[in-house]
Amino acid sequence: MFESAELGQKLSAEEYKKTEPLLRAEMLDIQRKLKSAQLSVLVIISGVDGAGKGETVNLLHEWFDPRYLNAVAFGTATDEENAHPEYWRFWRELPPKGRIGVFFGSWYTEPIVNRVLKHTNKQEFYREIQRINATEKMLADDGVLIVKLWFHLSKEAQKKRLKKLENQPETEWRVTKTDWRNFKMYERFRDISGQAVAATNMPEAPWKIVEGADARWRTVTVTQYLLDQIRSKLTQISQSPVHQAEPMPKPERMPITILDKLDLTLKSEDDYKTQLLRCQGRLNKLFRQAKNKGIACALVFEGWDAAGKGSAIRRVTPALDARDYRIVPIAAPTDEEKAQHYLWRFWRWLPPKGKITIFDRSWYGRVLVERVEGFASSSEWQRAYPEINAFEEQLCSDRMLLIKYWLHIDPDEQLRRFKERETVPYKQFKITEEDYRNREKYPQYMIALNDMIEHTSTHHAPWSLIEANDKAFARIKILNIFCDRLEDCL
Predict the structure, then answer these.
(1) How many angstroms separate the CA atoms of 426 and 47, rounded?
(2) Does the pTM of the predicted model rise above 0.90?
(3) How far apart are CA 361 and CA 330, in angstroms?
(4) Which of 153, 332, 352, 376 could make an SS bond with 158 (beta carbons 3.0 to 4.6 A apart)?
(5) 184 CB neighbour count, 10 Å cutoff
């Protein structure tokens, strides 16, 4: 795997002196072009200790315009990062469109180190590799250029490099006990790293193995490869046809869907207020236990306009300490959010351990409103199903409780609530022309809903379908589901 990076290749000082100014000028020029094309570039730097990774990051800072470059060195996770799902810290640092992001250390570090130290078995290691491949494909499908650089040294070259750094006062701080511990396991690191590189060398995100012994050779190799990759991607963008997203056509007949099985005549019992207080008391007790065990909860509320999402949320929160939950209302994405993958803004709001985030609408907008209204192309909303499932699997594998509610009402009940909102002064702000326009697309939304439930109701994150014509019945059912799922976790 790494033999090509142990050839002892070098570049003379004279050749480097001629090449350097040309490369620096070209890097600034290509950076302006990717900004104009709104292309985001993610550079992942990994490899052997002492092979020049840090020097390369410093070089990129020096040669690129730093206003459009963000380099992040990922070390041992902080307490805040450990309180969130593993990939939370990576998603927060992804480069927006038009910029370059450099990950010095990345989602490769822990899987490789843990496997080398035998903290994980082979099956667990390859499960992490599959997660990496899924993440990188997701980003690449969204247009991100991923450039992966693996810096390599032979065992002899690494030993020589570490000793040289250690013997110079200005660089001795860069060599630690961990570096020498890893050196003693060089063969095992090489073997496991080779497996990781081979298993993640995908067409969407290939690896470039860089011989790191000679600094000048390394510098020219890295910068030329990076320029080539960006040029190639810019050419691909300029030659690719623009796929216009189109609104979903109205079906010839009203579809029969999973939601038709719901009995919307169900009503709450007469002692609704007593039931409500009992459920809220039960929830308070259960969540305090979950909080003590460090269980995070994410509640997703989806449903028709006027289905009662807001009022249902207001029956959940009185059972909780206000310091333990956050409500995140999801509207149209901002310019900052449009510059990222559509899941980026949801990763930002995920709850830490022992806390709750309540999403009033969610990532399912990609396969509902964006599909129906034509804000997402066919390829975008179709690939969203596996992307969402992978996202939710990550949350649940980190012991997060994820509950997804769909609040369902029939068109007649929705119209009655619209009319009521128009006559009640403190509800008038809730009703707009957009709400009536959406009603005309009821058949399209029913098809999209049926597909959403069919493709994303998984074992770890099933959909809870709520009969919501009677608001009181819906609220009690929502609270009971939350309590039941908490009991299962506990």
Answers:
(1) 61
(2) yes
(3) 5
(4) 153
(5) 9
Contacts of 203 (CB under 8 A, 6+ apart): none
Give the start-to-end residue ranges of the domains of the chain.
3-239, 258-489
DSSP state of 295: -
Phi, psi of 369 (to 5 degrees): -60, -40
Q: Report d(CA 422, CA 432) in Å as an integer.
A: 9
pLDDT, averaged in runs of 10, over the chain (490 residues): 88 96 96 94 95 93 93 94 97 97 96 96 97 97 97 92 87 86 92 96 96 94 97 93 85 92 93 96 98 98 96 97 97 95 97 98 97 95 97 96 98 94 83 86 96 97 98 98 96
Do residues 279 and 476 lie in contact, with contact meaning Cβ atoms separated by under 8 Å? yes
Domain 258-489 has CATH 3.30.420.10: no
> In 3D, which of 380, 350, 374, 372 has the Cα closest to residue 362?
350
In the CATH scheme, what is the homologous superfamily, with its name and number, of domain 3-239? P-loop containing nucleotide triphosphate hydrolases (3.40.50.300)
Tokens of 149: 């650089």
429: tokens are: 């702000």
Contact 204, 140 (CB under 8 A): yes
Sheet holding 41-47, edge to edge: 69-73, 100-104, 41-47, 145-152, 207-211
192: nearest Cα among 244, 128, 247 = 128
CA dist 279 and 473 (Å) reads 12
Contacts for 68 with CB less than 8 Å, ≥ 6 apart: 31, 35, 98, 99, 100
d(Cα 193, Cα 111) in Å, to the nearest integer? Answer: 10
| DSSP conformation class of 207 | E
- Tell me if 218 sits within 8 A of 210, measured CB to CB: yes
